[in-house]
Write a structure and sequence with these properties.
Length: 306
């Protein structure tokens, strides 16, 4: 009799846990739909445990990342809008780099989207001793979206695409073949070990950050996600300058701190624009008129989101 009482209490607690997560994050339906995840995944025990273990820490990390992003976040959303991909992929970049434009991994992956050199070159980015476009917020975001579309063309689901961004399309396809299913709960079941732990955690991180960031749309009183829009009065604009122009001179023209301008132009490794190149300098939209008055009419590249 005592065993059955314990069993009933355990079932009740588990059901309460599920209900609490659903009530706490009503955004999950929107997030899961955008990323092609079955809504029933919210009841996956491993995911439930992950959310409960990490939700408070991830809220703090969310705040830190968005505050760090400032000009980056509205710019990335604009590129995503132009290229017609779900804006929720901004959370993939949040997981990859926490919006640190200078981020570099132990495997030498770099920038907001953590491209390794070979993939960057495959995606038509310049990577050399003068220019490294992995660190250009606009160019790298545009190329990351192109890369995501290529993966999606092969795997067909956005959550699989996100997982493949972490471990490669071949890795994800191999795990599907071993599991015999694309069901997320089974595919990333830690007991089955169809795919490596890093990738299992990776997709859960993206989902949780997205649930935190989008919850303001669905839950009264949870306004944390609205902070993504606090910097929307400004964003990054790419402008052309004369070959040989250096960042310190541009910072002086814009009456900006050099380090602030450098953070959005880390693709200029030597701090100058090479002659006879199509490389552009990123400046805040709020400084464009000042730039125009002092430097001349800035020419924006056509179709900069290609």
């Amino acid at each position: 009799m005592k065993f059955y009482k314990i069993l009933i209490i355990s079932i009740f607690l588990n059901l309460s846990l599920y209900a609490n997560i659903v009530d706490e994050f009503p955004s999950y339906r929107y997030v899961f739909n955008e990323l092609d995840v079955d809504e029933n995944y919210i009841y996956d025990k491993n995911f439930q445990d992950f959310v409960n273990k990490n939700k408070y820490r991830y809220r703090r990390l969310f705040i830190q990342a968005v505050n760090r992003g400032q000009l980056i976040v509205p710019t990335m959303r604009e590129v995503m809008y132009q290229k017609d991909i779900s804006p929720l992929f901004i959370y993939l970049s949040m997981v990859e780099s926490a919006f640190r434009t200078h981020a570099i991994s132990s495997s030498s992956a770099g920038g907001l989207w953590q491209f390794v050199k070979l993939t960057a070159l495959d995606e038509n980015m310049q990577v050399n001793n003068i220019i490294d476009e992995r660190y250009d917020p606009i160019k790298s975001t545009s190329r990351a979206i192109d890369y995501l579309y290529k993966i999606h063309d092969n795997l067909g689901k956005w959550y699989l695409t996100a997982m493949a961004y972490n471990c490669g399309a071949g890795c994800v396809q191999d795990s599907i073949d071993r599991a015999g299913t694309i069901d997320l709960s089974r595919l990333i079941n830690p007991n089955a070990n169809y795919i490596r732990k890093e990738t299992r955690d990776y997709i859960k991180k993206i989902l949780l950050f997205a649930m935190i960031g989008e919850n303001y749309l669905f839950k009264a009183g949870d306004n944390l996600g609205e902070m993504k829009y606090q910097f929307d009065n400004d964003r990054i604009i790419p402008v052309r300058v004369r070959g040989g122009e250096n960042l310190r001179n541009i910072a002086s023209i814009l009456q900006m701190d050099y380090s602030a301008l450098k953070r959005i132009n880390l693709h200029l490794k030597k701090d100058f624009v090479p002659s006879n190149s199509n490389i552009m300098v990123n400046i805040p939209a709020s400084r464009v008129q000042m730039f125009r008055n002092a430097y001349g009419n800035p020419r924006r590249a056509e179709n900069i989101y290609r």
